[in-house]
């Protein structure tokens, strides 16, 4: 994982649940190419897959990822290449699923008001600095601990553990 990510913002409101991120009616799919077609398809932006580029950033209000504990929600966002998810707050299980899969999930108070749909955003994971390159606004995110940063830098918890076992 690079120390910085820069991408276009796709904004969502509060209480975006896992069925909006990845509707339960698609859980029968097991191949990533099939799963990623339905990213955010239950949300107010059901066609995000057609507009999203690798590295783009999801920005949301409070309680992002609430609902079921299915990993599919985080898997589909990783599959479309999300650079990071910025939110006022996350549902606990979704937050850990995202981190465990290697997706930066960054909590930042006031972020939903600072960044709007289509803004160009840059995040420095080492310093926690967030810049809205479109408006010039800036914010500081809550830092992730060393353990979570290790997971992200490894590309997820499984690659991290694999690397640790191979080095013994």
Task: Summarize this structure as a short list of keywords or feature phrases.
single chain; 168 residues; alpha/beta; seven-stranded mixed beta sheet; 8 helices; globular
Brief write-up:
With 168 residues, the protein is α/β, with parallel strands linked by helices. It is 31% helix and 18% strand.
If you had to describe this structure to a student in words, what would you say it looks like?
This protein is α/β, with parallel strands linked by helices and 168 residues long. The protein has helices at residues 18-21, 32-35, 48-51, 72-79, 92-100, 111-114, 146-154, 157-166; strands spanning 4-11, 57-60, 84-87, 105-107, 120-124, 129-132, 138-140. The longest helix has 10 residues, at 157-166. It is globular, with a radius of gyration of 15 Å. The two termini are 23 Å apart.
Name the poorly predicted regions.
Answer: none
Helix content: 25-40%
* Strand tally: 7
How widely separated are the two ends? 23 Å
What is the N-to-C succession of helices and strands?
EHHHEHEHEHEEEHH
Main beta sheet = 7 strands, mixed
Strand order of the largest sheet: 4-3-2-1-5-6-7
Beta-sheet strand percentage? 15-25%
